[in-house]
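Input record, target 12 of the design panel.
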């Protein structure tokens, strides 16, 4: 690849007017209108609107995963097949998320639009997402449900990829721990809000579409305030099959630290993926709760989880910036999640389920914030940040595909050996998450 001239991460974004640019035959590059190349400081509105947009998009994506999709599947196929069918629906949808995120990220890197590189993907993905959620809400058969959910995952993850790719565009390295910690608030707030909405609405259409409306509104707000960088000229090289395939891979030998970061995230997120997905069925099976009581416990557990995540996502990001280290915080966060998973596996009461969720949430909040900050420091190519962050997001999405699919055989195995289906599932999750927490120390270029 030819050498590129590009601004350092965190240079203030250029306005929509024509920027001063330097282009390359591969992807095109840019510098700001003021000609600066130093670390700079992000615009004041950037981090608040970025965090708000993450809340909106995650609300649309996670509310079905955490609560409403389980009851939707149950209404279509009944209790006997619910776990297996839920695993298939969420697993296939997660595959679409896995491909959409890095592909949309890479295409946004190459987008030479008068509206900027990221803005068209943020708005377009959110618009398609709300339409897809309407399909999910009105589906009466499993095939239609799968199609709607796959489209929702693909479109909303495209919007999410473009949204979060703006972080290294806008924020200097020294402030990324704090910024990513604040962005990390999006997940816990979305989880809590989604569970409350699920309890507030009995109508399936409202349960799915209202989160989509919130995602669209917050995305539009972010797009309005975003001082998006622009490419003045379209990349000279066409986007071919090789480029498409390259959207999902990187050279492990040249970038081992990025590879270990990816693998660490994959294992931790695999351990985390099945916790909330099967919680409605776990509570119903273990404690004999009906739908209303199940949602009530989920809301309570989510309050505990969200409160812990809000504290730890900010605290982890802030302390990692202050200390100048990432790896210890990532590893500790993963091991805290392991403690919560083990407690969840053997919880004798719903009160301890709530406590376990709080512990898992505390670990997850710190992990998600500091891990993102670490990842931005080991990216293979600063001119392909959205693509590389999209590849990293495969480590988030792939476990969400694999974990639900393997849950059914794990549940059967746990029952067969006398441990119990859901306890065995959560113990396996704990073991996998512990492996991921340890693997972060294979990253050598970041402390």
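The sequence produced for target 12 reads:
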């Amino acid at each position: 690849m030819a050498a590129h001239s590009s601004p350092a991460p965190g240079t203030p974004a250029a306005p929509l007017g024509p920027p001063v640019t330097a282009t390359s035959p591969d992807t095109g590059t840019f510098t700001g209108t003021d000609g600066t190349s130093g670390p700079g400081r992000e615009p004041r509105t950037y981090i608040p609107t970025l965090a708000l947009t993450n809340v909106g998009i995650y609300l649309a994506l996670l509310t079905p995963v955490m609560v409403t999709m389980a009851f939707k599947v149950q209404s279509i196929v009944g209790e006997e097949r619910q776990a297996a069918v839920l695993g298939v629906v969420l697993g296939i949808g997660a595959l679409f998320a896995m491909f959409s995120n890095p592909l949309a990220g890479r295409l946004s890197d190459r987008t030479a639009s008068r509206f900027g590189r990221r803005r068209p993907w943020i708005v377009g993905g959110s618009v398609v997402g709300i339409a897809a959620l309407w399909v999910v809400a009105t589906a009466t058969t499993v095939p239609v449900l799968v199609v709607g959910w796959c489209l929702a995952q693909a479109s909303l993850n495209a919007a999410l990829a473009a949204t979060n790719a703006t972080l290294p565009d806008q924020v200097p390295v020294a402030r990324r721990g704090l910024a990513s910690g604040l962005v990390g608030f999006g997940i816990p707030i979305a989880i809590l809000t989604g569970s409350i909405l699920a309890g507030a609405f009995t109508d399936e259409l409202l349960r799915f579409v209202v989160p989509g409306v919130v995602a669209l509104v917050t995305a539009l707000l972010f797009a309005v305030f975003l001082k998006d960088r622009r490419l003045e000229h379209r990349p000279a090289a066409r986007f071919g099959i090789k480029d498409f395939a390259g959207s999902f891979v990187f050279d492990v030998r040249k970038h081992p630290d990025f590879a270990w970061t990816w693998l660490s995230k994959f294992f931790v997120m695999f351990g985390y993926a099945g916790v909330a997905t099967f919680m409605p069925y776990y509570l119903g099976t273990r404690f004999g709760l009906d739908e209303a009581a199940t949602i009530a416990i989920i809301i309570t557990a989510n309050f505990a989880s969200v409160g812990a995540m809000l504290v730890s996502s900010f605290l982890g990001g802030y302390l990692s910036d202050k200390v100048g280290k990432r790896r210890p915080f990532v590893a500790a966060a993963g091991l805290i999640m392991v403690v919560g998973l083990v407690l969840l596996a053997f919880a004798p009461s719903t009160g301890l389920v709530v406590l376990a969720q709080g512990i898992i949430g505390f670990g997850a909040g710190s992990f998600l914030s500091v891990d993102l900050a670490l990842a931005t420091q080991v990216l293979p190519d600063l001119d392909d940040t959205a693509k590389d962050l999209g590849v990293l997001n495969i480590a988030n999405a792939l476990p969400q595909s694999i974990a639900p699919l393997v849950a059914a055989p794990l549940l059967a195995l746990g029952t067969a050996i006398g441990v119990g289906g859901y306890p065995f599932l959560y113990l396996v999750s704990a073991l996998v998450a512990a492996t991921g927490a340890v693997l972060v120390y294979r990253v050598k270029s970041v402390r």
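Residues 41-228+243-442 form a domain with the Growth Hormone; Chain: A; fold (CATH 1.20.1250.20).
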